[in-house]
Design a protein that fits this description.
By secondary structure, the chain is of the alpha+beta class. 14% of the residues lie in helices and 26% in strands. Helix 1 runs parallel beside helix 2.
């Protein structure tokens, strides 16, 4: 009898297992259906379903009195008579509630608000959302949580900003520390390649050729002084200058003064100095002074009339047939000079040329006095120097000339 009871009980157990499996399948289908119906919502929610509680099979101990023990058919009938609750309205019993969370991968996050009317598709890679914590075994039913549109479930990782170029450029407002001027040693002309070179060479006709090279003195004025013969010249764009100066002494010493206060001195021996006589007139600024020479009894504009407009030629003096005029000075406010050179043989032959100093009456000199100097080479070592002063008539005589003749013996002024 016990064996028969055991066999019947085993059959009842299999039926209960089948019933529990069917209940689980129905609960899963119900949960899946509820998940699909709630999937269209923008706000995800966690759905839960309860599996119907199935009473655990009770195995009754065999009663001492076989007569009082329930038969296998009665047990089976009691089991089969247990009603099955609907899947959505299953009464929870002793078995713990099983919470089925909707898979995170199937939840669609609420789209970010866009400024365009068209839907925006986000294709950037995102980090997986954290898994929800398991519900407590005997806690209350999980409440629905609604997220705002500005707090999406999935967090979109912003792309990392591009790495800035590490190159550093100084802006226009950056301050660069520079050493103070006191710490910078001034470059000397020798260090900067600014050597000033002056050379002198004797040429035929008792002429001094002076060459100046001053690369760093472009356009500057150079003041010359040779035995009282003063004049100023301007250096060229490259700082060079070549000037021919009538020698006033046999051992010609020339001093050159530069704007920075430096001087250069040269000395040249003139071998033919005794063959020529010279007379010069020197002035400073715009005085209107001029030197005229008349050879062989010439008058104005004749062939033997020598002055700035018709200076003659040095070759005639070398040949002993005539003289020539040299004009020195090229600056507005510097010294200037007219020098007349003629062969000494002309004086010995009794045909010494006549020389006159003239001054044109100008608006800046009318009614005033003009001053200058007269130089004449002599038999001594140094030329004779005489001061020159002329009183200019009133401004009604502008354009006329003052003439000083028979210099330096007779100082006679005539109105022309």
């Amino acid at each position: 009898m016990r064996a028969d009871l055991k066999e019947k009980t085993s059959g009842v157990d299999r039926k209960r297992v089948y019933t529990a499996a069917v209940a689980l399948l129905v609960a899963g289908a119900a949960g899946h259906f509820m998940q699909q119906t709630s999937g269209g919502s923008r706000n995800p929610e966690v759905m839960s379903a309860s599996v119907p509680s199935v009473a655990a099979p009770e195995i009754l101990p065999a009663p001492k009195d076989p007569a009082t023990a329930p038969t296998g058919e009665a047990v089976a009938a009691a089991t089969l008579e247990t009603p099955e609750a609907p899947a959505r309205e299953i009464v929870e019993q002793a078995a713990p509630e099983i919470v089925v969370a909707a898979p995170i991968a199937s939840i669609r996050p609420a789209p970010r608000p866009s400024r365009l009317d068209e839907p925006v598709t986000v294709t950037a890679a995102v980090d997986p959302a954290p898994m929800p914590e398991a519900a407590p075994e005997a806690g209350p039913r999980v409440e629905e949580v609604t997220r705002a549109a500005s707090d999406p479930l999935l967090t979109i990782t912003e792309p990392a900003p591009e790495r800035a170029d590490e190159s550093v450029f100084a802006s226009a407002t950056d301050t660069v520390e520079m050493p103070s001027p006191e710490t910078i040693a001034p470059a000397t002309p020798e260090m900067a390649g600014c050597d000033v070179d002056v050379t002198g060479t004797a040429r035929p006709g008792a002429i001094l050729q002076i060459d100046v090279t001053a690369p760093c003195n472009s356009g500057e004025q150079v003041a010359f002084n040779h035995a009282g013969l003063k004049f100023s010249e301007q250096l060229g764009p490259d700082g060079s200058l070549t000037v021919e100066v009538p020698a006033m002494t046999g051992t010609a010493r020339v001093s050159l003064g530069f704007p920075d206060g430096s001087d250069r001195n040269i000395e040249v021996t003139v071998p033919d100095i005794e063959a020529f006589d010279r007379i010069a007139v020197i002035w400073q600024g715009a005085t209107g002074l001029q030197l005229h020479a008349f050879e062989g009894g010439a008058d104005y504009d004749d062939k033997g009339h020598l002055w700035a407009d018709t200076p003659g030629a040095r070759e005639a003096a070398v040949a002993g047939t005539g003289g020539f005029m040299t004009m020195l000075g090229s600056t507005a406010n510097g010294f200037a000079a007219d020098v007349y050179t003629y062969p000494a043989a002309l004086s010995e032959a009794g045909s010494e040329p006549e020389v006159s100093i003239e001054a044109q009456v100008m608006e800046n000199t009318c009614g005033s006095k003009i001053e200058g100097w007269i130089l004449r080479s002599g038999t001594g070592k140094e030329p004779l120097v005489e001061p020159l002063t002329m009183t200019v008539p009133g401004c009604d005589a502008v354009g006329e000339f003052l003439v000083l003749k028979n210099l330096p013996v007779a100082l006679k002024i005539a109105r022309k």
